[in-house]
Amino acid sequence: MANDEEDLRINTLNALTKQSPFVVLEEHSHCEVPAGCGGVVLRWRDPNAGEPGVLRVAGLVGRARAWLDGTEVVNTWLSLLPGRHVLAIELTELPSEPTPCIALVTHQRRDEVPPLLLSTVGHDWRVHPGDPPTGWTAPDFDDTAWSIATDATDLVEALSNDQSPWRFRGPMRDGATPLRATGPRFAVRATFVIGGGAP
Question: Are residues 65 and 148 in the same domain?
Answer without folding.
Answer: yes
